[in-house]
């Protein structure tokens, strides 16, 4: 029996915040505790109440004065792009062709894929991200390396072998048949093993022929419980070229609709420049628009019209993500700090409660996994993090002026980085302290 009491200032969301002062959307315990056992949370509440119910002599770990919250969730990033972050390029297509495609070719080599997988999972945990949804490369070896590393660490991770059979260099292309067979092999080998989830992953319409899009449709039909991920409407040159490649489609979104790829488990990276018709198609199918703020700014892709999407008669489901290596940080703090600035430029506000809701419960809901992750509810997986809003000299000084939890969250978002993540627990096990030094 490995029952443990974890004490700290607890914060978790119960539902989406309705305003910046919505006190009912979260639970906060100034002296709170979790009880964890066999990788699950079994109790959550005020420390005194939790301790009274625990057997005499139960082990205790005290994280006060730090915040305890659910682990962060990153809903879109690229595992093989660790070594292209911050590559100097004009826009998306130039960036892909000049840096990203050549780099991804290296993942045919299992040793390279294994080395980067170790670094990748270390970096996620350093930043407090306990679940992520990643693109691997076209090579099955990359997916094998990714899921093996995830299994070793006991993490709830989603990912997929990329399907791409055109408009990319030699060594980075499969065929419709190969994409179908290898995706099936990845599903057979990894889906449901440990906490792994395999995702059907056609990269985007530019790099899949109609025949390969058909293969994606077939996979989606055979495995209706699996998530699907792709890119949508990120950049004007991309949109123009995509529509040329599929002249029969009404617009970019309609291409994916024609191949049966819209739905409540479908994650569309970026989705910045959607027409009204496209936004309707997304909301009617409960598809998820995945906002990637640092990437959108770095590649100059555009300003995600968050409030426009949300204020529609039929609101879009929205998730948030880093999109590393188009994105420039693994940190969900940096990600939401940039999301905030994008909304500032659009004359809108994104309040700190919303930000932290989206990094945790919001992203869990977007993945239909809030019964397992994203909260501190008893019965869910013990994936949680310990945060210090005074981790640096500047933060410490600024904290002297902070009096509410909301202000503390905003400070963490604006100034925080991996130094603010004191610990990351995965299925009840502390993972960060044992990593090799950053
Ligand atoms: N669209 C297709 N592939 C990619 C990628 O790797 N990164 C980004 N940002 N957009 C893409
Ligand atoms: Fe991406």
TrEMBL record:
Domain Amidohydrolase-related: 68-429
Cofactor binding annotation: Binds 1 zinc ion per subunit.
Pathway this chain belongs to: Purine metabolism; guanine degradation; xanthine from guanine: step 1/1
Catalytic activity: guanine + H2O + H(+) = xanthine + NH4(+)
EC number(s) given by UniProt: 3.5.4.3
SUPFAM superfamilies xref list: Composite domain of metallo-dependent hydrolases, Metallo-dependent hydrolases
Entry's Gene Ontology BP terms: guanine catabolic process
Pfam families per record: Amidohydro_1, HUTI_composite_bact
Coiled-coil regions listed in the entry: none
Entry similarity comment: Belongs to the metallo-dependent hydrolases superfamily. ATZ/TRZ family.
Function: Catalyzes the hydrolytic deamination of guanine, producing xanthine and ammonia.
Record's protein name: Guanine deaminase
């Amino acid at each position: 029996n490995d029952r443990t009491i974890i004490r700290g200032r607890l914060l978790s969301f119960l539902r989406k915040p309705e305003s910046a002062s919505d006190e009912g959307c979260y639970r906060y315990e100034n002296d709170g505790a979790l009880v964890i056992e066999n990788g699950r949370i079994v109790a959550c509440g005020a420390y005194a109440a939790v301790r009274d119910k625990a057997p005499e002599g139960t082990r205790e770990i005290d994280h006060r004065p730090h915040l305890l919250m659910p682990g962060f969730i990153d809903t879109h990033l690229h595992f093989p792009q660790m070594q292209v972050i911050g590559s100097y390029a004009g826009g998306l297509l130039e960036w892909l062709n000049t840096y990203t495609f050549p780099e991804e070719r290296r993942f045919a080599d299992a040793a390279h894929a294994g080395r980067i997988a170790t670094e990748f999972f270390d970096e996620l945990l350093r930043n407090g991200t306990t679940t992520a949804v990643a693109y691997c490369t076209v090579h099955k070896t990359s997916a094998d390396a990714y899921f093996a590393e995830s299994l070793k660490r006991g993490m709830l991770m989603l990912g997929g072998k990329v399907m791409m059979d055109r408009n990319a260099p030699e060594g980075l292309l499969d065929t419709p048949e190969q994409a179908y067979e290898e995706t099936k092999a990845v599903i057979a080998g990894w889906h449901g093993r440990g906490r792994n989830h395999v995702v059907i992953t056609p990269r985007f319409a530019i790099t899949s022929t109609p025949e390969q899009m058909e293969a994606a449709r077939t996979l989606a039909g055979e495995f209706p419980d699996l998530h699907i991920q792709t890119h949508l409407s990120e950049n004007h040159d991309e949109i123009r070229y995509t529509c040329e490649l599929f002249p029969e489609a009404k617009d970019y979104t309609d291409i994916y609709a024609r191949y049966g790829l819209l739905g409540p488990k479908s994650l569309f990276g970026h989705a910045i420049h959607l027409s009204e018709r496209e936004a309707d198609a997304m909301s009617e199918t409960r598809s998820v628009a995945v906002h990637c703020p640092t990437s959108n700014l770095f590649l100059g892709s555009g300003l995600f019209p968050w409030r426009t999407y949300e204020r529609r008669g039929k609101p879009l489901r929205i998730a948030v993500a880093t999109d590393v290596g188009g994105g420039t940080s693994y940190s969900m703090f940096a990600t939401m700090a940039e999301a905030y600035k994008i909304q500032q430029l659009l004359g809108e506000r994104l309040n700190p409660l919303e930000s932290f809701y989206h990094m945790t419960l919001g992203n869990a809901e977007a993945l239909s996994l809030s019964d397992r992750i994203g909260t501190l509810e008893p019965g869910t997986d013990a994936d949680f993090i310990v945060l210090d809003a005074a981790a640096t000299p500047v933060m410490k000084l600024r904290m002297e002026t902070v009096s509410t939890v909301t202000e503390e969250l905003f400070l963490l978002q604006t100034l925080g980085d991996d130094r603010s993540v004191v610990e990351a627990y995965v299925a009840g096990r502390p993972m960060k302290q044992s990593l090799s030094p950053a």
